[in-house]
Amino acid sequence: MKTRVSLKVNGTVQEHEVEARTLLVHFLRDQCKLTGTHVGCETTLCGACTVLLDGKAVKSCTVLAIQADGAEVTTIEGLACNGKLHPIPEAFWECHGLQCGFCTPGMILASVEILNRHPKPTRQQVAHGLDGNLCRCTGYSHIIDAVQSAARKSAARSK
Amino acid sequence: MAATKPKATGYIGRPVKRVEDPRLIQGQATYVDDLVLSGMLHMAVLRSPYAHARVVAIDSQKAKSLAGVRGVFIGHDINERCGLVPCASLAPDQKAPKHTCLASDRVYFVGHPVAVVVASDRSIARDALDLIDVEYDPLPVIADPEAALQPGAPLAHPDLGTNQAFVWTLANGDLEKAFKEADRIIKSRMVHQRLIPMAIEPRGCVASWHVGEQSLTLWTSTQIPHLIRTLLPGMIGVPENKIRIVAPEVGGGFGSKLNLYAEEAIVSHLAQRLGAPVKWIESRRENASATIHGRDQIGEYEVAVKKDGTLLAIKARAIADIGSYNQLLTPAIPTLTGSMLSGCYKMKAIRMDIVGVYTNKMCTDAYRGAGRPEATYTIERLMDLVADELKLDRVKIRLKNFPKPTEFPFNTVTGLTYDSGNYQGALKKAQELADWDRLIKQRDTARKQGRLFGVGLSTYVEICALGPSKMMAAGGWEWGCVRIEMSGKVTVITGATPHGQGQETSFAQLAADKLGVPMSDVVVMRGDTAVAHYGRDTYGSRATVIGGTAILMCIDRIVAKARKLAAHLLQAKEKTVEFENGCFFVKGKQKNGITIQTLAAESYVAKNIPKNWEPGLEASSFFEPPNCTYPFGTHIVAVEVDPDTGQIEIVKYVAVDDCGPQINPLLVEGQLQGGIAHSLGQALFERCVYDENGQLLTGEFMDYAMPRAADIPNYILGHTVTPSPSNPMGIKGVGEAGTIGATPAIANAVMDALAPLGVKHLDLPLTPEKIWRALSRAKGSAK
Questions:
Q1: Strand B478-484's sheet: what is its strand order?
Q2: Which of B17, B24, B250, B667 to mutate against chain A (most A CBs within 10 Å)?
Q3: What ipTM score was computed for the predicted complex, to two decimals?
Q4: Which single residue of A108, B128, B271, B337 has CA 20 to 30 Å from B148?
């Protein structure tokens, strides 16, 4: 049996039939064709599938599409505004905060939440905020640099 | 080939931002799972829950009748059509089981593929797995490699009649004499625990068969598309020139994707058989249980030394638990441990016997460092144990046994020739950056206060840029091609297959500098055998050194060819034509020069070219390295151990690495930090655990403890630069340095912290529990 759900994904309404068991991540990847959100474990542990659900960072492999009915979702594809890079991905680029790139969309969306909570985060606050996101390439140091750099840039822009 | 000097003002040597990144940071990259082909089917794999069992019966009727299922395929059906999974490195006289794609009448490890389902949808394929009824008759399991060698032990593969796969021996110098000359013989046993590579993107592949062309395209998350193209024909019977392998965006490998796996052959076969594209994406649990593991050696070591600390010889016997089968390089990996066991040191004799042992576990193979971390960890722990035993300074004993910089190329006792080195220089610089004397004072003060503070170091050398073809199974060269397009844009094609290392950037830096064009005009293509016709791919820290040199050779050929055309157009003698900043000109007449872009257009329009001059500006090259490269360095670590919890805090981390001149220091730093994180995992957290029944207890991220962001210390990174004579740029490779150099430094620091309690050695990982137990034992014995 399928159920129709309607979500606002990156500002666009996405209405599709889903099975009760369809995970949000599969809804995004298979039905909305937004493949920037990745699956690394399907057990909420690696964080590669992190998206913003009503503004909060969640792991989309542990949310059913039905649970998200009516919600607003932001994926990595939706972070750019008016064709301009969002300050966080831009900082990941500048600080070499990624290598293979597979964990990167999840890292970036988790970082959005970190900066929402701590506009000027310490290294510890960033590291703590990324506790649910695994990276096997970078060794995290450049990722932490990137999040702090994005915080500084955002602060400078809003001045 | 002319050695072209890098320009100080160019791209080479600068921390240029990666050209790969815009697609990766905006969710626009294409990994295997992002591919959707028309009519694509999905495969799921049923795997054995037993480590050793007879397969009595398989009933797949229910699965077959599930709506959406296109087929269920079991052992003989697939194995009759897909050949054996290849191993390129069996030891002479090695007894090896037939590695069929699916298990037939027996399963030999948890995760062993038993059947596959193909369905219209991924969920249906998974549902169908649950409907397959397999009757197993469990058999005795051998999971412990030491027990495996005891008489009467259960046999991992009863048909082989033994668990011993091979004995590999390296013996050089007069060992007996050296041990007789020794004042002291220091013995140690060390366990190098099994690790799981755990790339965040699991494996996966999509195969598509073009019936009209009778050709196969396989997209697969691999480090080695070219090696797969060489090996797959032997499995599925499609000729090499009808096979295209594409490694699209690959989400990390670390050696685990340096293999041709059964699933890659099965999807290729089924796409052909079912007449539809077939996709398989590995789950995390499958990745932990059925993608290769790393390390897993248990060694007994004896070091013969003079009382002044002069090393004389090492005698070693190690058991390598290779698991149930031989994957591509399984037996070769422990031999790298033997070759690198003498580390940075001179000695007169060495002997290492490695006994490869079959157990009912997943195979081991190349995991970042691949045999060298075991060597470096062993020798660097041994150096500390020797210093401790002889009451000598740890730094001085290392300095005493290093070859001098003037002794390079240095022939090691193991039979290698280290290309270049200045081990003293790297050690000195690391000590300066660490403020060594003050750090030791800090430790001594802490000790007086009863705190457990330790300082450790490791001085490492590694073997990289693997390697000259004579030491490889099938070619150690790399291929490249450079084309100046008619528009003047530059296309660089490499046979190396980067998967996160950033050669799209570093090779563009190279080409832009050498051709005098903007980097934005250069595109680097990789990872597709239809584009990069030849290649030997990325592993063993080889891509930049060997692949980069091949690109350099192409550019030299293009410049030489273009110079002839320039001379013709400038009506000058060829030898009077100079090339600088992308412009050919007659000396002193720079203003009248011709740009390489103009020459490119002229070369294709070809209306005004010299007689017998072939149109076009393209060159391809194979670079065959004369030797491996040997990067080196010193890592210094300070730790404090919490006496109540056994928790370890890294207080200071200093690394000085010498990988020769750096093309892009930002990327070098990234490789080092990433490599050190793998070391940190090995030293403190990670351990692949099987129980005595061969059940994998660490099959998810929940149980397999990888470093997280909060575990990472602040790094102080430095470099020395000792060029390699083995390639024109003098570069050495850096992909595995951190993983090789860091583990022993961390371990030595923790052992130094525990030294006042009389703890001499603990095996890795140094988990809080292990430390806490050691502290409790030490306190107990002190009472």
A1: B522-525, B490-494, B478-484, B618-623
A2: B24
A3: 0.98
A4: B337
